[in-house]
Amino acid sequence: MTDPTPPPAPRLAELPAPVIAEARATVYLGDAVELLPLLPEASIDALVTDPPYGLSFNGHSWDDASGFRESLPQLDTSAMTAPEVFEAWCTAWAAGALHALKPGAYVAAFGGARTWHRMVRGIENAGFEIRDQIAWLHTTGMPKSMDLAHAIDKHHGAHRTDRIVQTTDRDGVLGATRTVVSKGTPVTDDAQRWDGWGTALRPAFEPIIIARKPLAGTVVSNVLQHGVGAINIDGGRSADNRWPTNVVFDQEQADALDMLTGTWQGESLSRKFPIFRFDHKPGREERPRAFGVSHSTVKPLALMRWLITLVTPPRGLVLEPFSGSGTTLQAAVEAHYGVVGVEKDPSFIPLIRSRLEA
Prior knowledge:
The chain is α/β, with parallel strands linked by helices and 358 residues long. The chain has two domains: 20-140 and 203-357, Rossmann fold (3-Layer(aba) Sandwich); 148-193, no CATH class. Helices cover 28% and strands 19% of the residues. Strands 1-2-14-13-3-4-8-5-9-12 form a ten-stranded mixed sheet, sandwiched between helices. Strands 6-7 form a two-stranded antiparallel ribbon. α3 crosses α4 and α9 (301-311) packs across α10 (327-334). The longest helix is centred in the N-terminal third of the chain and has 19 residues, at 82-100. Mean pLDDT is 86; it is low at 1-6, 277-287 and 289-296.
């Protein structure tokens, strides 16, 4: 019997024309897995990215196994679980990045707490060395937890008459949302027994993987020959000229630390860590909208500037394979770096352009 599955589309042989070409920023529309191997070899100084986490965020295909499979047409993923597909996808984009980065170039990539180990394996499988992990501690994550008692009542067919749920009448950044104003009173005995139980913690931590393309020789010889291979310690220093740490806070987390610990040797403990005081999880001003389109997972500009400065030589060239709303691109341009971006979703291109033109 003839296989009804259509053959995969032919892969590109060369880079397409950029959809954005400015003095410091170049953006390509397409799949990072396909486009990164087409970039000039050993031409990029650092990679700083906020990639999909493989969590099926808000039902988006770009964060789901179905979308990852689209990027891997040459690989038989039919017998793979969703986490295995995510790992294979991470290996694929990281292999393209390995081609484009200079020897000794660093990678700083955000990950999800439940799936970052798959991303680390993928990056390592592609040929990178895992050097460190930065913990970004923030305060505005929303718990995605089942109300077990309410679920049990529904299972038994019991209705809570005093339960109040508020639904938005229009789509927001995260799409249409539902907010439980009052969870109501458990009805059944089983629900009363499990009242107050759920299935998830509130997220307040995101890991940032720090990896490096293998050196060509020693650190010294690599730095002298390729201009990369080390971390910009002085550029990443925080309050009172502190050495950069692998833990960074937002202001509310820093305040909570100080409230719990008081002072140490006459100063607050949080001063020993980088703190992004004015833009923790980004607010509306950092969630831009263009032609009705916004992006649901946006990182603070100050945090992205700090990461870029930490791993990129001055006025070097940064790669962002998953441009999204353009936060990394804007941060790089504002800090006087060049940046090459790739974005698969054409609806985000006007958003990126609006940030670069602001």
